[in-house]
Amino acid sequence: MFNVTKDMIISDILAKDTMAAECFFQMGMFCVGCPASAGESVEQACAVHGIDADELVNRLNEFFSRTA
After folding, report:
1. How far is Cα 63 from Cα 57, in angstroms, rounded to an integer?
2. Structural domain total, the chain
3. Which residues does residue 62 pair with via DSSP β-bridges, in sequence order?
């Protein structure tokens, strides 16, 4: 199973499965296509957008557990 952590780069997560973008969208983060996502960690992006990084990581890991 692919395990997401807060220090992972967003584009690396999306490279594993582009459908994971839905998890970002559900949290109100529509920046997955933004050039910053190529070098920004989940934790950094969440801090900028005022989103709970732990909640997003949990959603992403739940998504990847279903697609494994």
Report:
1. 10
2. 1
3. none
4-63: pLDDT as tens digits: 999 999 999 999 999 999 999 999 998 788 888 889 999 999 999 999 999 999 999 999
**Which residue in the block uniquely carries the two structure tokens 């998890």?**
23
Residues 2 and 60: their CA atoms lie apart, in Å, by 10
Domain membership of residue 2 (yes or no) is no
**51 is in which domain, residue-wise?**
10-67
- Region of 50 (left: φ > 0; alpha: ψ -120 to 50; beta: rest) is left
pTM here is: 0.92
Residue with tokens 């992006």: 45
